[in-house]
Amino acid sequence: MTPTPRREQLEATVDLDAIAHNVRVVAKAAAGARVMPVLKADAYGHGAVPVARAVLAAGAAELGVATITEALGLRAAGIMAPVTTWLHGSAAEFGAAAAADVTVAVSRVDQLRAVLAVAGDAPPNVAVKIDSGLYRNGVAAEDWAALATALADTPGLALRSVFTHFACADEPGDPSIDAQTAVFDARVADLRTRGVDVGALHLANSAAALTRPDLARDIVRPGIAVYGRTPVPQVGDFGLRPAMTLDAEVIAVKRVPAGGAVSYGRTWIAQRDTTVALVPAGYADGVPRALSGRFAVRHGDALLPNVGRVCMDQFVVDAGDHDIAIGDRVVLFGGPPGPTAADWADTVGTIDYEILCGVGARAVRRYIGMRT
Ligand SMILES: *Cc1c(COP(=O)(O)O)cnc(C)c1O
Hints:
Blueprint: E1 10-15, H1 16-29, E2 34-35, H2 40-44, H3 48-57, E3 63-64, H4 68-76, E4 83-85, H5 94-99, E5 103-106, H6 109-119, E6 126-130, H7 144-152, E7 161-164, H8 175-193, E8 200-202, H9 206-211, E9 219-220, E10 244-249, E11 252-256, E12 261-262, E13 268-269, E14 274-279, E15 296-299, E16 302-307, E17 315-318, E18 329-333, H10 341-348, H11 352-357, E19 364-368
Parallel strand pairs: 1-19, 2-9, 3-4, 4-5, 5-6, 6-7, 7-8
Antiparallel strand pairs: 1-10, 10-18, 11-14, 12-13, 14-17, 15-16, 16-17
Helix pairs in contact: 1-3
Bound molecules: pyridoxal-5'-phosphate (PLP).
């Protein structure tokens, strides 16, 4: 008999088969383009290292993260696939990036000079991130001429890639998508005219990869779709499979008499005698306090509503006449039949990205599916 695996009181179970499936969904949608899954923010809370192994096994060609520190974390775990980074502060370790063969995408001439300086005689591992109208990270319009000149004046320079990021790819048909593409194409043409080897071109995040195959170019950079959430629910779910299930053990069950008030502030008062169950997850674990009284957990086929305030470490559900016992497990969110991360997001007025990234470190990550 195989022993029952020990379950932690709060677990975020990540299905690596779902991750692999989602990579293939995106690859198919972006026919012909290579896939660079975006693993920033610890792979949207799923765990960057196991997710990196899963996406590479599923055929991803490269990885993307925001910071050099995140990239070095992948390298430290022995992940040697190409990694691109793009968000650099004044303390960014360009030397460490070069030593670890991490691609640094630059947004300014001073960053380019810093990357060229640390490369010494070796070919610099550098890309260019263009701001095509998001007014966030990337080379600003007013800095373009200087950067293009500096690139052209660096003999023998071969860029890894030139890329940009959309403001409204999740609103298919928004005119800014084509407008940003036109700016990007003009910048790339400018570099080519100046004799710069631009390398691979990429624009598409998940939403663009799924809805605009014509913009796939050489590489697509999906984030949320890899984790199985659609960025364009109004269009469809594309057969993506949510990878994360957040579930917890019931750690106490007790009777509340009519008139009993549950949790801080006594905001919920039992209208009749009932049974409540205690779930060891709170806002420190990514259950938004703003969800208080506005969500339910799944216990088998039953949905048990939260009552009273969500606290830092725990919340309470009303089990009514439903059978529940200490040690039972309840699902906070996951794939079908739900509840889903998108349900939580809709209720509190955010996006499921924030719900996934918000799952705290106390939720023990557990991996199922493919061996990595
Ligand atoms: C986060 C990010 C992505 C992934 O976006 P999704 O909407 O999650 O697909 C792609 N490219 C860049 C530059 C990003 O910062």
